[in-house]
Amino acid sequence: MKPRLSLAVLALLAGCAVGPDYSRPTLDLPTTLAANAAEQHYVQQDIRRNWWALFGSIELDALIEHAMRANHGIASAEAALRAAQENVLAQQGYFFPSAQLGYTPTRTKLAGNLGGNSPGVQGNGSVISTTQNTPASQGGTAPFNAPVIYNFHTAQLSVAYTPDVFGGARREVESAEAQQQTQRFQLEAAYITLASNIVAAALQDALLRRQIAIVTGMIDNNQATLALTQRQMKAGYASALELANQRSALAQSRQLLPPLRKQLEQNRDLLRVLAGIPADGGVPAFALDAFKTPQDLPQALPSQLVEQRPDVRAAEAQLQAASAQVGVARAARLPQLSITANAGGAASQFGQMFWSSGKFFDLTASMTQTLFDGGMLKHRERAAEQALQGAVADYRMTVATAFQNVADVLYAIDSDAAALQAAADASEAAKAALDLSQRQHARGYLDRLALIAAEQNVHQAGIALAQARASQLGDAAALYQALGGGWWNRETTAQSKGVQHD
After folding, report:
1. Structural domains of the chain in order of their starting residue, each with its CATH number
2. Is the keyword Membrane assigned to this protein (predicted)?
3. Helix axes 58-70, 168-234, angle to 10 degrees
4. CA nearest to 192, candidates 437, 474, 477, 454
5. 72: closest CA among 266, 313, 284, 272?
6. Strand-strand pairing, 41-44 and 148-161
7. Phi first, then psi: what are they for 466, rounded to 5°?
8. How far apart are CA 16 and CA 60, in angstroms?
9. What count of other Cβ atoms lies within 10 Å of the Cβ of residue 16?
10. Are 412 and 296 in contact (CB under 8 A)?
């Protein structure tokens, strides 16, 4: 009856694990994520995995799809996930017995001058006595044994098992699985960040090309005007001051071009690195007019944001891993049970190892309890508890940062519409002012300096309009990233194709 009771107690203990069971901390969530912009239409919608396709650029779609396969950061994150998956499988092996098979042949030579009766060997390798006892009165010496050389063979199967009585191993598996989830969500975040960075770089490429085109047009216009002013001066219709002002305007416009070209080449280098394209490889040339702003931007509930943001999910997985480590540290302070069994054979000749006389076995169960270790295990448990508290704070901080990120993007989108409209109005006003200035200058009512200023205002207004347009597109892309980037739909698509990510 007692053995049955002991087994029942062990079975009951095996069903529980010491340490806290993980539960998500309480969060102070805002009531809504809605923006205040009346110009922009937000819709409660699911985010598609390739949200960048909504911007209408085939070149951008192809570049991002290529980057998903060739980017080195993605390859590193994928390798980290596979390593975490293998660590989970390795930790699960703790629940199975370990078995080892060993064979040990030995050849031993014993010194013969040790005195006493030492074993000898026959020709077949068996041990015999080689003691010589010649009396000293007959001319003999003290007892002497000849050196002995013999062989010995041992083959053994060892099986060991450590029952997880207090759940320390289960907590280790829980921690490893949480670390796997951390790597999984970090991979998803890497995908989203890569796509967002490429969209931002593509928009920057388009903006710089528009600015370069405007500045180049400004230079061409100033060169033509300078040539006209030179001819007018020779004919007596323009002064030296007007000529000097025109040369100054040309020099100032030329000064704007080199920094823009440098930024363009540096940005294209960034595109190559992000897309995994060699340094001498080509990347598309993007045009600002080729992009379109999505008509309906996505909107999410606060509770959805916590589930959709991969950085929040990764922080929660880290929190669960820290919670499990408290159980690991607590289980280490409790009694440790182990069971070992050995079976095999031993003999002086290989073929005799498994004779009935050569077989052996042993079965051992042991339980140990640490009585004194200088407080090492106690302080490790306390350290794990403090790490858990830190993980809770990190998780809540990640959630707060996520909501701040979304709020910042929504406010930016709110102002983008007004900024774009203001830039468009300023551009139209500058063009109208230039038209009037040109007619007044032709009739002699306006000097050339005022005309040059009107021309520069048109070009500056064009650059500001392009910047406002690029900002509007960039903030729309940032919203898709801030709301999670649709990684869950990318996973669904991959699973439908038979690809395993988890």
Report:
1. 32-95+169-331+378-483 (1.20.1600.10)
2. yes
3. 140
4. 477
5. 272
6. unpaired
7. -65, -40
8. 53
9. 11
10. no
Structure tokens at 385: 């508890």
Report residue 87 as tokens. Answer: 């660590």
> Distance (Å, rounded) from C-alpha 78 to C-alpha 298?
28
pLDDT by residue for the chain (502 residues), tens digit each? 444 444 444 444 445 789 999 999 988 888 777 655 545 678 888 899 999 999 999 999 999 999 999 999 999 999 999 999 999 999 999 999 999 999 999 998 888 776 555 454 444 444 444 444 445 444 444 455 678 888 999 999 999 999 999 999 999 999 999 999 999 999 999 999 999 999 999 999 999 999 999 999 889 888 888 888 888 888 887 788 888 988 998 998 899 999 999 999 999 999 999 999 998 888 999 999 999 988 888 888 888 899 999 999 999 999 999 999 999 999 999 999 999 999 999 998 888 888 988 899 999 999 999 999 999 999 999 999 999 999 999 999 999 999 999 999 999 998 998 999 999 999 999 889 888 888 887 887 877 778 788 888 888 899 999 999 999 999 999 999 999 999 998 754 444 333 344 4
Alpha carbon of residue 403 to chain centroid: 21
Distance of alpha carbon 70 from alpha carbon 54, whole angstroms: 23
Which one-letter DSSP state was computed for residue 55?
G
Counted residue by residue, the chain has a size of: 502
- Could you give the C-alpha distances from 416 to 37, 196, 322, 370, 422, in angstroms and in order? 10, 18, 42, 66, 10
CA angle 256, 258, 264 (to 5 degrees): 105
**Residue 140 amino acid letter:** G
Write the CB contacts of 464 (distance below 8 Å, at least 6 apart in sequence): 423, 426, 427
CB neighbour class for 205 (10 Å; exposed up to 12, middle 13-18, buried from 19): buried
Q: Are strands 296-299 and 41-44 parallel, antiparallel or unpaired?
A: parallel
30 by DSSP, 3-state: which?
A: coil
Q: How many other C-beta atoms are found inside a 10 Å radius of the C-beta of residue 434?
A: 19
Asked if 201 and 59 touch (Cβ cutoff 8 Å), the reply is no
Cα separation, 224 vs 209, whole angstroms: 22
3-state helix, strand, coil in the chain (%, to 5): 60, 15, 25
Q: Which residues of 278-308 are buried (b: 16+ CB within 10 A; e: fewer)?
A: eeeeebbebebeebebbeebbbbebeebbeb
φ and ψ at 396, to 5 degrees? Answer: -65, -35
